Amino acid sequence: MRFTQPKLPYPQDALAPIISPTTIEYHYGKHERAYIDTLNKLIEGTDYENMALEDIIVKSDGKLFNNAAQAWNHIFYFFQFNPDGMKEPSGKLRAKIEEQFGSFDEFKKKFEEAGATLFGSGWVWLSSNAEGKLFITQAPNAANPLTQNLRPLLTFDVWEHAYYLDYQNLRAEYLHNLWDIIDWDIIEMRYAD
Ligand SMILES: [Fe+2]
After folding, report:
1. Ligand 1 centroid distance, CA of 99 (Å)
2. 74 CA to middle of ligand 1, Å?
3. What one-character-per-residue DSSP string does 93-140 give?
4. C-alpha of residue 107 to centroid of ligand 1, in Å
5. Which of 20, 119, 126, 160 has the CA that lies 20 to 30 A from 138?
6. What SS3 state is found at 154?
7. pLDDT (tens digit per residue) in 97-150
8. CA 159 / ligand 1 centre spacing (Å)
9. CB 177 within 8 A of CB 80
10. pLDDT tens-digit series, residues 5-18
11. What distance in angstroms lies between residue 78's CA and the mean position of ligand 1's atoms?
12. 123 pairs with which residues across the strands?
């Protein structure tokens, strides 16, 4: 197998009650796993076999793009959480958020709105360009800012499989609660890299 599923850096019940162990069991254990398994099957014996995952995302389309991007998106999503992490950004990213959005609270409101108003399945992203400018984008299905030459910093999964077991139809509540488990040290590091 070319790509292996990384182990979560926290126990399955660490994000409860924001994300329940049952949601982790299905979302990480079955959905993320299936995207990685399918990706591995699709690249076997092709020119993509020895490519970095990011290169596959930028160069592929159709079924391969969908599974490569969903594999990357889910790994990125689950690695931004830590129930004991920094609850707010503090460094260079904090300053940029305040400069562009007015305040950290205004930024959170805009980000939640983008997630709540995305029609159907997809992702809401915070990313930056080469000059460090920030962008909030709504992305349908598997779409990823890497294909627009942007650097992903933070993402909320708004596919129903991400929240339906815990929140049913209350997507906005799920989005609002996620801030409690985001570790801003990790997001700051992604911005500074
Ligand atoms: Fe998902």
Report:
1. 31
2. 6
3. HHHHHHHHHSSHHHHHHHHHHHHHT--SSEEEEEEE-TT--EEEEEEE
4. 23
5. 20
6. strand
7. 999 999 999 999 999 999 999 999 999 999 999 999 999 999 999 999 999 999
8. 6
9. no
10. 999 999 999 999 99
11. 10
12. 139, 157
